[in-house]
Amino acid sequence: MIIPTHIPMASLLHFFPLLHFPFIIFCCMAVKPSPKPYIVYMGSSLNANGGDDMTHLQLLSSLIPSEESDRKFLINSYNHALKGFSAFLTENEASVLSAHDEVVSVFPDPVLKLHTTHSWDFLEAADSKSRSIYPHEQNSADVIIGIIDTGIWPESPSFDDRHIGKIPPKWKGVCMESSDFKKSNCNRKLIGARFYSNRAILTKPNKKHPTETRGSPRDSVGHGTHTASTAGGVTVANASYYGLAMGTARGGFPYARIASYKACTLDGCPASIILKAIDDAIKDGVDIISISVGISSMFQSDFLNDPIAIGAFHAEQMGVMVVCSGGNDGPDPYTIVNSAPWIFTVAASTIDRDFESTIVLGNNESYESIAINFSPLTPGKIYPLVFGEKVATSFTPASDARNCIPGSLDTKKVEGKIIVCMNEMPNVSRRIKKLVVEDAKAKGVIIIDGQREISPFDSGTYPLAEVGETVGFKILHYINSTENPTATILPSKEIRKSKPAPVVASFSSRGPGGLTENILKPDIAAPGVAILASIVPKIESFYGAPGNKSSKFGIKSGTSMACPHVTGAMAYIKSVHPHWSFSMIKSALMTTASMSNNMGKTLTNTSNFPANAHEVGVGEISPIKALDPGLAFDTTINDHLNFLCYYGYNHKRIRSMSHRNFTCPKSSAEELISSINYPTISIGRLNQREGPRKVKRIVTNLGSPNATYVSSINTPSGLLVKVVPKKIVFREGINIASFKVFFDGKEASKGYNFGDIRWFDGSHVVRVVFAVKIE
Ligand SMILES: *[C@@H]1O[C@H](CO)[C@@H](O)[C@H](O)[C@H]1NC(C)=O
Ligand SMILES: *[C@@H]1O[C@H](CO)[C@@H](O)[C@H](O)[C@H]1NC(C)=O
Ligand SMILES: *[C@@H]1O[C@H](CO)[C@@H](O)[C@H](O)[C@H]1NC(C)=O
Ligand SMILES: *[C@@H]1O[C@H](CO)[C@@H](O)[C@H](O)[C@H]1NC(C)=O
Ligand SMILES: *[C@@H]1O[C@H](CO)[C@@H](O)[C@H](O)[C@H]1NC(C)=O
Ligand SMILES: *[C@@H]1O[C@H](CO)[C@@H](O)[C@H](O)[C@H]1NC(C)=O
Ligand SMILES: *[C@@H]1O[C@H](CO)[C@@H](O)[C@H](O)[C@H]1NC(C)=O
Ligand SMILES: *[C@@H]1O[C@H](CO)[C@@H](O)[C@H](O)[C@H]1NC(C)=O
User: Fold this and answer.
1) Has residue 102 got a pLDDT over 90?
2) pLDDT at residue 40, rounded to an integer
3) To 10 degrees, what angle do helices 307-317 and 637-647 make?
C-alpha cells in the first residue's frame, strides 16, 4: 500500500543506484509476522461511550501478547469528533479487532500523496481575473480555513496580518513551537500551526512512547505554503516568479484566517496523521478544511478504509466542510479520488495565461513552445541540433534514445548540442529527460509531445522547450533537410489572455468514481495550471535559479492548486452568508458554475472536445454568481447516512458513526444512492428495457420568497427525461419543494449520456447536471 511520491523513482535510481538497497526483500528470514501501523476506526466520539485513550489502550492490551508490551501504545489517538487510534498490529490482530463490537473498520496506514503534478514540474500563475474579481468586505463574518498539508512558511508576505482584525473567540487552536518556529510566527492571519511526529517513527515500533521527534510546523517543501496562500493569502502587489506572472497575488478570500496542520512531508502523508489533523482541526474550531492530498486511485478500497473519507464524514457532522483535490491521474476514466458525497471534489483547469519560449532554428524559422525556463541562451548564438536517436550509446535501441531515457545517450555525441526528445513513454517524465540531457552536458532540450501536456514544465535556468506533434514534425524535418542543423532556445515570456481558457487539464483525474457511479464526480473545476502563489524561498540544488536568488512566489500545477481556489470561494460565500449550511454553499457553487470559455464556446478538454461531467463536473466555479444561486440542494447528514446504508455497510456500523438515533431505511439498494439530495444526478446503470427510472430531489429557495421556477431539459437525443412537476411555486412560508426526474433509456445510446435540467425564475438559472449510463 505504499504509494510513490511525486518524485519519479526511476530518476532517483538512475542517479543514485545505491537507493536500490532498501528495496531488497529478505524473503526467507522472517518467521514471526511483523507488526505494521494500522488505523482502528471506531465511529463517532459523541455517542454514548465516547473514546478515550484509556479504553483504547485497554482494547489494545487485550490483544497484544504480554511479551510484546513495547507495542502497547497508541501512535495516534482520535477522540474529538471521531473515535479510534492507530497502533502497530499484526495482520491477525487487525482481523481480530475488526470483528470487535465497537470497531467500524481496521485498515493499514497508507501513505497518501500530494496532488501536485506528476513530478514537481508544475507551475502556476495567479490569474488576477479569476482570483480578484470579487469585492471583499472587511467586516464580513470570520471564516477559519484549516490547511492540511506540508506546513507553512510564516514569513511569506501572503500571511501578513496588518489589515486583519482580532482573532475570533471561536478559535480554540494552538501555535506549536519548535527550534525554527516561534509563537510569534503566528499572527492574526496565520492563527494556528500544528505538526505531527514524522513517519520515521512509524516505520518500526519504538521502545518507548513516540516522544516528540524533531519536527516543526514550518514548510520545507512549499506545497502547503502555496495552497494556504491560494485559499486565503492577503493581497500582495508585484508578486512574480523571477519576473514571470507579474501581478497582484491574492487568495480566494484574503480576510480568511489560516490554520496550518503539517501532516505531510515530501514523502507523502501518513493516513493516521491526516486523520489526526482532521480531528484536531474540528476541535480547534475551523470552518473549512482544505486537503490537496489523496490515496492513489489504484488503491481505493472503500469509504471506510479511506482516512480522508472518514475524517471528512465527521467534519461534515460537526458543520465543517472538507474540500479536496480529485487527483492527477487523468485523463483516464475512473481515476478520481476523494469521491465521497460529503467531500467537495475538485478538478483542475487552465487560466488565460501561458508561458512560451521561442525556438529559433538555423534557417531563421521560429516556433513557440510551452515552457517556463530562464534560458541564458540569446538569439545571436545557435547550437548544433540533433535528434536523440542519432546520438545513442552503442547497443541502445533507437526507441529508447529518441525518448532520451536514462543511459541511452552518448555523452561524447551530445555535449554542447540541443537534443530533440520524444515524450512517448509515460514512465520517462519530462523531469527525467531534463536530468538525462543535462547529465550528458547538452546545451538544451526540445521535447515533442504527442498528447499536449498542458502544464508547462519549470526547468529553471536550463533551456527546455516543449512542442506538439505538428511543430515537432517541422523541427525533425528541418534536421533531415540540412547538413548542419542548428537552433537556440530563448527564455520564456508570459502570454496573457490566451484562448481558449479555461480548458480541463489533461492530468486532472476523471470520473466516474471507482467506488460508486451513482454520485457524479468530480464536482467542480477550478484553476490548477500554472498558478502563482507563495512558496518556500529556497534554491533547489538541481534547479539553477536565475541569478542564484530565491523567489518568494512560485508557479505550480495540479489539482492541489485547484482545491484551495474552491476553499477560498467557499470561505468568501460563508462570510457573506454565515447562516447557509456548507452543503448549501456547495450547491450554490455547483448550480451556478460556468460551462463556457473565454471564446464564448463550451469548455473543452485538451483534445478540443466539449468537456463532459466526468472531466469538469458541473464546470468552472463562478463565486460571484454563487452568492445568489436562487435555489439550493441541502444535502443533510441523514442523506449521507442513508448513502452508507445504500452503499451496503451494515446498519450497526453506520449507527456508531452517527451520534443520532439513526435507522437505515427499510429498502436499501445501491441505485437509491441516485436519490440522495445531491446537486447533481448520476445513474450508474440504466437498462434500456427497464422503463423510466425515478430520481427525487428537494430544493430550498434562497431567493425572494415569491418565486416561480420553470424547468427545461438539455438531453442527448434518445434519452428521455421528464421533470415532475415542471413548475415550482414558492410563497412566503413555503421555501422547500420537491421534484422528481424520470429517465428512460429505451432509445438512448449505450454508455454515458450527459445533460442538464435548468430551473429558471426569470433571473436565476439553477443548473442540475446529470450523467446516466445506459446498458
Ligand atoms: C510595484 O511596482 C510598481 C512599478 O514597478 C511600483 O511603482 C510600485 O511601487 C510597486 N509596489 C510595491 C508594493 O512594491
Ligand atoms: C538569418 O537572419 C540573420 C539576421 O537577420 C541573417 O544574418 C542570416 O543570414 C539569416 N540566415 C538565413 C539562413 O536566412
Ligand atoms: C518504461 O516503460 C517501458 C515499457 O513501457 C520499459 O521498457 C522501460 O524500461 C521503462 N523505463 C523506465 C526508465 O522505467
Ligand atoms: C527524417 O529522415 C528519416 C530517414 O533518415 C525518416 O525516417 C524520417 O521520417 C524523416 N523525418 C521527417 C520529419 O522528415
Ligand atoms: C547559489 O547560492 C547557494 C547558497 O544560496 C550557494 O551554495 C551556491 O554555491 C550558489 N551557486 C552559484 C552557482 O553561485
Ligand atoms: C476529450 O474528449 C473526447 C470526447 O469525449 C475524448 O475522446 C478524448 O479522449 C478527450 N481527451 C482528453 C485529453 O481527455
Ligand atoms: C431510536 O428510534 C427508534 C425508532 O426510530 C425508537 O424505537 C428507539 O426507541 C429510539 N432509541 C432511542 C435510544 O432513542
Ligand atoms: C409575496 O406574495 C404575497 C401574496 O401575493 C404578498 O402578500 C407578499 O407581499 C409578497 N412578498 C414579497 C416579498 O413580494
Assistant:
1) no
2) 94
3) 150
Using the mean position of ligand 5's atoms as its centre, give its distance from the Cα of residue 548 in Å.
6
pLDDT of residue 483: 94
pLDDT at residue 63, as a whole number: 84
CB of residue 548 inside a 6 A radius of ligand 5? yes
Task: Return the CATH fold of 631-635+677-774.
Answer: Immunoglobulin-like (2.60.40)
Q: What is residue 64's predicted lDDT score, i.e. its pLDDT?
A: 84
Instruction: Give the pairing of strands 727-730 and 383-387.
Output: unpaired
Beta bridge partners, 708, equal 729
At residue 351, the 3 state secondary structure works out as coil
What are the tens digits of pLDDT across the range 449-467?
877 667 899 899 999 999 9
* Atom 9 of ligand 7: nearest residue by CA position: 661
Task: Give the cell for residue 133.
Answer: 474579481
How far, in Å, from the CA of 534 to the mean position of ligand 1?
Answer: 18
For the chain, the domains span: 113-201+215-348+504-537+548-627, 353-495, 631-635+677-774
Residue 2 Cβ contacting ligand 1 at under 6 Å: no
Catalytic member of 492, 560, 583, 587: 560
User: 358 CA to middle of ligand 2, Å?
Assistant: 16
Model confidence pLDDT, tens digit, residues 646-680: 999 999 899 999 978 899 999 999 999 999 999 99
Catalytic residue among 149, 279, 287, 306: 149
The best mutation among 374, 462, 539 to test binding of ligand 5, ranked by most ligand atoms within 8 Å of the C-beta, falls on 539
Atom of ligand 3 at shortest distance to CA of 14? 13
149 is catalytic: yes
Please compute the mean of the pLDDT values over residues 357-368 and round it to a whole number: 96
Ligand 4 pocket test, pick from 480, 482, 483 with the greatest ligand atom count within 8 Å of Cβ, gives 480
Q: Which residue's CA is minimally distant from atom 14 of ligand 6?
A: 331
Q: Considering the entire predicted model, what is its pTM?
A: 0.89
Contact of 360 with 382, CB cutoff 8 Å: yes
Question: CA-CA distance, 165 to 175, in Å (whole number)?
Answer: 18
Cell 552518448 appears where? 410
Question: What CATH architecture does domain 113-201+215-348+504-537+548-627 belong to?
Answer: 3-Layer(aba) Sandwich (3.40)
| Domain 353-495 of CATH type 2.60.120.620 | no
Q: Would you say 480 and 304 are in contact if contact means Cβ atoms under 8 Å apart?
A: no
Taking only the tens place, the pLDDT of each residue in 734-745 is 999 999 999 999
Kindly tell me if the per-residue pLDDT of 641 is higher than 70.
Answer: yes
